[in-house]
Amino acid sequence: MSEETRPVAVNAAEAPARTKPSNYPEPFASRMIGREKRPLGDLFGLTNFGVNLTRLAPNAISSIRHYHTKQDEFIYILRGSPTLHTDEGRMALSPGMCAGFKAGTGNGHHLINETGEDVVYLEVGDRTPGDEGHYPDDDLAASLVEGKWKFIRKDGTPY
Hints:
Layout: E1 35-39, H1 40-43, E2 49-56, E3 67-68, E4 73-79, E5 83-86, E6 89-92, E7 98-101, E8 110-112, E9 119-126, E10 132-134, E11 141-145, E12 148-152
């Protein structure tokens, strides 16, 4: 999309959904069934940080539980009641609540929709080069290389 054709404002719920449901390799990508992301930051050509409007269907998860070495993350719950799972345990969230995850803390986190209704939230993260993602519960590691996530097993072998 050229700069001339980028919108100035949109209805976020009507923005195009991401065409590829997950960047994870299998067997992890299929665990993202029921998650839909609308990449709002990309729509406007933002390069320093990303913003997604994300919907989790019942029983869906936001991501594999993870943490970043360089990327700060922030979520704001708009609708529904997800469960936030971190190293400290589980916490019920509700509309109007928010959570932040400072880079480099090693606190693995993700959201789980354990309810019968959709969860909708905003997620914001920066795009710091050289970021790494760590997944404490799974044999998965990631590196941000030239703006794309590269996934490997914890022993360094590729997927």
